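INFO  loader      accepted 1 record
INFO  loader      residues=216
INFO  predictor   begin
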Amino acid sequence: MSVGFEGPGDVASAVLSAVVGRVTALADRLGVAHAEVFDTAALSVASGVPEPVVKALLSGRPAGEPDVQARFLQRLDLLRRTRLKPNGRKYTQQEIADGAGMSRQQAGALINGDRRPTMEHCDAIQRFFRVHAGFLTAEDPEALAGALQRSEQELLQKLAEREAAAALDDPLERLLQDHGVRQIAWRAAQLPTDQHRDKVAEWLDMLLESVKRPES
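INFO  predictor   done
INFO  writer      dumping tokens
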């Protein structure tokens, strides 16, 4: 038993909890229903995490983590069910093989679970289905946090647009906009953890200290 150190799963869970809190606060501020931003079916499709696991993680409950190959198979199956061809049909094994630059035998073995995927296989399949890096491999809390971070960025953009419009009528808001304060805050909010944002605040403090004019 290690003392004083967090495992990767603990870190991912902490990041997820922080993102959930920020998204909740943004949704409340914008008047967006929680059911919309925490739509478990949509989050499952976006993250690759099974919907029951999404519900458990959002409720703060631990969820059993599959091994690497089981996770790969589950998420590849989700991709094949949700990322369809223009005609609404699934991509065939041959089409996946051609698009991912592998033989049909390789693709079939991966899809059927007869071969353990390499990172090269995962990268090629992710590019074929046009999903982000790590879709097939990230642990469930990390994958869900990533999907929520993309939702967070959309909410931040909406908030920035609303505040930019409000700035036209509010002198203080206009001042903040003219000096780039909102843009700095928006960019800082996209950092993955509170520790990263604390570093930004420390850097700004140092910058302010360095540019202070000597008292006359």
